[in-house]
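Dear H.,

Thanks for agreeing to be a second pair of eyes. The structure we're designing against is below in token form, covering all 155 positions.
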């Protein structure tokens, strides 16, 4: 399992950044709620934050075996080259580089484990969901429908 870096000997860059990071949510984020609302409107029943599955997916369609992750751009390393460059110049660079890289690696591992167990994995970026939650939900709906068809043919 991928181990997150330690906070030992690190200090916050500022009081404001410390407060901001302390208030980041692990579940029930704004973009996750936006996507869930759209899926609900489409009539797609789901379970949320299923801890029994690798990576604790944000949204799960158990019968279709589809796991959806609503990844935050910063924490999961969207546009990693750009973000990495910015982090290198900031406070506690070594920690943040290690933290985001370990998150990226953990995401890859969880994807592989879920896929090996027969799950289809979707990872959607925070800004994409916020920009167009309906399009993000439509993508999820299409994958769920395809998985239902595939599983029906397998019977």
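And this is the sequence the design step returned. I haven't edited it by hand at all.
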């Amino acid at each position: 399992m991928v181990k997150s870096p330690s906070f030992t000997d690190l200090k916050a860059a500022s009081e404001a950044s410390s407060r901001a990071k302390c208030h980041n949510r692990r579940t029930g984020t704004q973009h996750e709620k936006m996507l869930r609302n759209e899926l609900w409107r489409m009539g797609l029943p789901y379970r949320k934050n299923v801890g029994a599955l690798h990576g604790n997916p944000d949204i799960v369609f158990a019968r279709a075996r589809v796991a959806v992750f609503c990844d935050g751009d910063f924490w999961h390393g969207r546009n990693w080259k750009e973000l990495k460059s910015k982090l290198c110049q900031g406070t506690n660079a070594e920690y943040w580089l290690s933290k985001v890289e370990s998150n990226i690696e953990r995401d890859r591992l969880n994807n592989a484990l879920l896929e090996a167990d027969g799950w289809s994995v979707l990872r959607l970026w925070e800004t994409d969901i916020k920009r167009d939650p309906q399009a993000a939900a439509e993508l999820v709906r299409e994958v769920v429908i395809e998985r239902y068809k595939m599983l029906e043919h397998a019977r």
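Two observations from my side: Residues 44-154 form a domain with the Endonuclease; Chain A fold (CATH 3.40.960.10). The first strand starts at residue 47 and ends at 48.

Warmly,
E.
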